C-alpha cells in the first residue's frame, strides 16, 4: 500500500453516522449511565473522540504504539521532559530549536535537569557525552535551522546500550519522509503546527511512543498537566494529514530546485540542504529519508545582520514570519526570530550566524520563488555598502 493510500484510509469513517469527515466533538463532558460507567469518555481533558482519532492516526503513521496530542509543539516537548527527575541529564543536539533550548535551560535546569549539547552528526560525540545520570538523548534530524542530519539508527544503538531513552523531533522530515521508531527511537515528537497541519492555521504538538508502557506514562502526564489539543484544532490536523504526502513531495521538489539555484549565487557562503550532494550529511539523509524536505538555510559571505535583514524584507512571495511547513513560502532571520533566546556564542558554535537566513519553501511555482529570491538579492546588493574592512565584494 502506498503512503498516500495508507494516510487516507487510516482516518476512519464515523461509525455512528457514516460521516466521511471526522466529527468535531465540541464538548467538555460526557453523560454517564452510572458513576464511572460511560462510553469510554468522561471528561474532555482526559479524552475526546476527535482528538483520539488524531492520536491513533499519528501513531499509525509513525509505526508507534500510542499517540498523544498537545496544545503546542513545546507542550509536547515539555511532556517528554517530565518523564525525567531532578538530577537526571539530557544529551541534546547542539543545533537545537530555540524554544526547546529555552525550555531546557530556563525552566528545567532550575529543577536540577541538566543538558549537554553536542554535534550529533558524529555519533561518537553522543556516546562520549553520556554519563551515569543521562536518561534522555534529544535529537532533531534534520536540525533547525542548519539541517544537520544525525544517524538515528547508530544513536539508537548507543541509547539502548546505555539504557537511555532516545527522542527524535521529526518535525522537519514528517512521518512520510522518515520514521524514527523504525530506526530505533523510543519517542517521536512533532510540532504539528508545521507540515502535519500544513496550512499555517493552528498550533499543535504530538508525541508518539514506541511501547504501550511509555505511552501510559505520557498519557498520565498529558491528563495531569492538561495541555491537551482542542477538538477543532485536532480536526484541522486530521484534515492536514490527508494531503501530507502530496504536500511534502512538492515542498521537497521545489526546495531541491531552489537549493540548486542558491548554489550559483555569489552572495551566499554556505547552503544547508540535505538534498544537495555537497551537504556534509547527504549520504545519511539518503539512507533514512524518503524526501529531503522543504526547509533551506543559507548564510552570506559577509556575516552582516543588516544585509540579511534587507534580503528577508525585500522578498514578495516569501513572507517574513515565524514558523514553517505551510503552503505559503516563508522566510526568517533566526538570530532575531526563532533562535533569539540562544546566546550568540552558542548560536555561532552551532553554525547559526547573524547572516543565516532560513526559508520554508511552499507550494508555489518553483520558478516564481527563484525569481523572488533573485530580485531580493539584487535589492540587497544595491542597498548595502560594505565597509572598507570587508574582504569580500558582493
Structure description:
This protein has 394 residues and is α/β, with parallel strands linked by helices. It has two domains: 3-241, Type I PLP-dependent aspartate aminotransferase-like (Major domain) (Aspartate Aminotransferase, domain 2, 3-Layer(aba) Sandwich); 245-383, Aspartate Aminotransferase, domain 1, CATH 3.90.1150.10. The chain contains 13 helices and twelve strands. The termini are far apart.
Give the topology:
Blueprint: H1 3-10, H2 49-61, E1 66-70, H3 73-81, E2 89-93, H4 98-108, E3 114-118, H5 123-129, E4 134-140, H6 152-161, E5 165-169, E6 187-191, E7 205-209, H7 212-225, H8 231-241, H9 244-262, E8 268-272, H10 282-288, E9 295-300, H11 305-312, E10 319-320, E11 330-332, H12 344-349, E12 357-360, H13 366-383
Parallel strand pairs: 2-3, 2-4, 4-5, 5-6, 10-11
Antiparallel strand pairs: 1-7, 6-7, 8-9, 9-12, 11-12
Helix pairs in contact: 2-8, 3-4, 9-13, 11-13
Short description:
The chain is α/β, with parallel strands linked by helices. It has helices spanning 3-10, 49-61, 73-81, 98-108, 123-129, 152-161, 212-225, 231-241, 244-262, 282-288, 305-312, 344-349, 366-383; strands at residues 66-70, 89-93, 114-118, 134-140, 165-169, 187-191, 205-209, 268-272, 295-300, 319-320, 330-332, 357-360.
